[in-house]
C-alpha cells in the first residue's frame, strides 16, 4: 500500500479533520470484516467493470481486489465509497438515487453490514470517524409502494369459512338482502371492494378469521332482517354448520367450493370494468388485461387448487398443491410467532434474499460455468445452515413468500402449457392485491418461459432485469406467452359465487 495520504475533500471537512486517512481505515475495515464472511469471496463477482481506475486515487495506491471492486461499483472516489460504507460523512448526499437501484443483492448486504461497524474498534485505526447515516439499499423499491385500499370494511384476519359467511351475507345499504334479487342482472362493480346493484345499494366484502367465529355470528345477527337462508362454502360450511344454524336461527345452505369460485370468477370477469390485470415488475403498476377461454384459475388459500375453466358451466379441477399460504404462515409462525398472513406480508416488504442460495453460490467464479444469471434463486433458505448468516424476521418472511410464489408461478406455467391456456389467474387470500405476492408469482412464471428460450437467457445481467425485459418485450412485440394475471376481488371469488347462487334461489 502506498504511503501517500490525500487531502480531505472540500465537503464535510470538519468531520474528519485536516487530513483524511479513510483509505487505510476502510481497507482495514473491509479486510477484517469480509475475511470472516462466507459471501466475501463471491461479492466481487457481482461487480461490473465500469471503471478501470479508482477516481482520484494515486496509481501507486494499491488495494485488495475485493475492496477495489466494491469501490469501482460505487462509481465514486474512495472517499465517497467510505461515506457509503458508513466509515465517514464525506459527500454522501452526492450519491444519486439512480446509482442505488442497480446495486446487486450481495453488494447491498455488504454495505448494510459494513455500515454497522464501529471504526474505532478496527485494528490500524488512527482516528475516530463519525459514521454516516446509512440509507438502506433496496433493489425492489416498488415493493414499498402503498397498496390500493379497498372501499370496504375489513376486520383483520385470514380466510376460511367465517370469511365466506360474512362475505356471502355482505352489508347491504339502503335495502335488505332480498331487495337485491331483482336487480342482479343490472349489477355493476364499483370500487375495489363493493358491488353497486342499483345505484343506491352496495354490497361490501368483510372477512374474519375462523377463530373469531363468535364475533362473526354477533356481526351477522342484526343484519339478517328476517332472512331464512345463508349460502356458504368451504370446509367450514361443514365444521360450523350446526353452530351457525342454531345461533343464527337460519338454514345453512352448503355450496360446493370449486363451483362457487368459478361462479364468482365468471361474475367478476363479465360484469366488472377491467377487473383483470398483470403486475408490471418494472413499475409495480397494474396493466389491464383481456381474457379468453380456456384459462387456468390458481386459487391460493392455505393450500392450492388449480382449475381449468372453458366457460361458465365448463370447468374441472386439474391439479393442486399443499404448498400454499399456509406453508408460508406456518414457517413464519414457527420461527418468530407471527399471528396472521397479513403480518407476514408486511414484514416481507422490507426483507431481502439474504437467506437464499443463488447460482453464484453453487457454481463459484468459473467463467462460462453457467448461462444462468448469477443472482438467480437456487435454493430457498439455502444459507440457513451457515450459522454466521444473520436472520431477520423481514428476510425470513421474504424468503418464505418467494419460495411459495416461485413454485406456484412455475406450476401454473407448466399446467397452462400442458392444457393450452394463455391466461393463468391467481387469486385467493394469499394474493389479495399484495405487491410482494404478485411480483414473486410473476417472476416465477416469467422465468419459466425465459429459461426455455435459450437465446433470451444470459448470465451478464441480473435475473430480475431479464424477466422485466422479457415481459416488456413480449408485450411490445406481441409475442405469445403465458400471462400471470390477477383479479379485483380475488380473495372473495367464493363469496361472490355463493352470493350469486343465493340470489338465484330467491328468484
From TrEMBL:
Organismal lineage: Eukaryota, Sar, Alveolata, Apicomplexa, Conoidasida
* Pfam families from the UniProt entry: Fumble
GO annotations under biological process?
A: coenzyme A biosynthetic process
Q: Please verify whether the record's keywords include Transport.
A: no
Q: Where are the transmembrane segments?
A: none
Q: Name one GO molecular function term.
A: pantothenate kinase activity
Q: What class of enzyme is it?
A: transferase
Query: Has keyword Coiled coil?
Result: no
Q: What is this protein called?
A: Pantothenate kinase
What PANTHER family does the record point to?
4'-PHOSPHOPANTETHEINE PHOSPHATASE (PTHR12280:SF20), PANTOTHENATE KINASE (PTHR12280)
User: Which EC number(s) does UniProt give?
Assistant: 2.7.1.33
Amino acid at each position: 500500500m502506498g504511503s501517500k495520504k490525500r487531502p480531505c475533500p472540500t465537503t464535510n471537512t470538519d468531520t474528519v479533520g485536516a487530513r483524511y486517512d479513510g483509505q487505510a481505515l476502510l481497507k482495514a475495515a473491509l479486510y477484517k470484516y469480509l475475511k470472516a464472511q462466507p459471501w466475501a469471496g463471491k461479492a466481487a463477482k457481482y461487480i461490473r467493470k465500469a471503471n478501470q481506475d479508482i477516481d482520484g486515487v494515486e496509481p501507486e495506491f494499491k488495494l485488495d481486489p475485493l475492496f477495489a471492486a466494491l469501490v469501482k461499483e460505487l462509481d465514486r472516489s474512495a472517499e465517497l465509497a467510505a461515506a457509503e460504507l458508513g466509515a465517514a460523512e464525506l459527500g454522501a448526499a452526492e450519491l444519486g438515487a439512480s446509482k442505488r437501484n442497480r446495486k446487486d443483492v450481495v453488494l447491498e448486504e455488504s454495505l448494510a453490514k459494513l455500515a454497522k461497524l464501529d471504526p474505532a474498534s478496527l485494528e490500524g485505526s488512527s482516528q475516530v470517524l463519525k459514521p454516516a447515516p446509512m440509507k438502506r439499499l433496496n433493489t425492489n423499491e416498488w415493493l414499498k409502494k402503498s397498496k390500493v385500499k379497498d372501499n370496504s370494511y375489513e376486520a383483520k384476519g385470514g380466510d376460511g369459512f367465517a370469511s365466506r359467511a360474512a362475505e356471502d351475507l355482505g352489508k347491504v345499504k339502503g335495502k335488505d338482502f332480498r331487495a337485491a334479487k331483482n336487480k342482479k342482472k343490472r349489477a355493476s362493480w364499483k370500487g375495489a371492494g363493493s358491488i353497486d346493484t342499483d345505484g343506491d345499494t352496495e354490497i361490501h366484502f368483510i372477512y374474519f378469521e375462523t377463530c373469531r367465529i363468535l364475533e362473526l355470528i354477533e356481526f351477522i345477527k342484526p343484519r339478517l332482517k328476517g332472512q331464512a337462508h345463508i349460502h356458504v362454502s368451504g370446509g367450514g360450511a361443514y365444521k360450523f354448520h350446526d353452530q351457525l344454524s342454531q345461533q343464527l336461527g337460519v338454514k345453512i345452505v352448503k355450496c360446493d367450493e370449486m363451483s362457487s369460485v368459478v361462479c364468482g370468477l365468471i361474475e367478476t370477469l363479465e360484469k366488472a370494468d377491467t377487473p383483470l390485470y398483470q403486475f408490471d415488475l418494472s413499475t409495480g403498476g397494474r396493466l389491464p388485461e383481456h381474457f379468453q377461454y380456456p384459462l387456468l384459475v390458481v386459487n391460493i388459500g392455505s393450500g392450492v387448487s388449480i382449475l381449468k375453466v372453458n366457460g361458465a358451466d365448463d370447468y374441472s379441477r386439474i391439479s393442486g398443491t399443499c404448498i400454499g399460504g399456509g406453508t408460508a404462515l406456518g414457517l413464519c409462525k414457527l420461527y418468530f410467532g407471527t399471528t396472521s398472513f397479513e403480518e407476514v406480508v408486511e414484514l416481507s416488504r422490507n426483507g431481502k434474499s439474504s437467506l437464499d442460495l443463488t447460482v453464484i453460490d453453487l457454481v463459484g467464479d468459473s467463467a462460462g460455468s453457467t448461462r444462468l444469471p448469477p443472482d438467480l434463486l437456487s435454493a430457498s433458505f439455502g444459507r440457513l445452515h451457515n450459522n454466521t448468516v444473520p436472520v431477520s424476521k423481514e428476510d425470513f418472511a421474504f424468503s418464505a413468500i418467494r419460495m411459495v410464489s416461485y413454485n406456484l408461478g412455475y406450476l401454473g406455467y407448466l399446467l397452462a402449457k400442458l392444457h393450452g391456456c394463455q391466461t393463468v389467474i391467481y387469486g385467493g387470500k394469499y394474493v389479495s392485491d399484495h405487491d410482494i405476492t404478485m411480483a414473486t408469482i410473476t417472476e416465477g412464471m416469467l422465468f419459466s418461459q425465459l429459461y426455455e428460450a435459450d437465446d433470451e437467457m444470459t448470465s451478464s445481467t441480473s435475473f430480475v432485469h431479464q424477466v422485466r425485459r422479457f415481459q416488456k418485450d413480449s408485450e411490445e412485440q406481441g409475442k405469445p406467452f403465458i400471462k400471470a394475471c390477477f383479479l379485483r376481488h380475488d380473495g372473495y371469488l367464493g363469496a361472490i359465487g355463493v352470493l350469486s347462487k343465493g340470489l338465484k334461489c330467491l328468484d
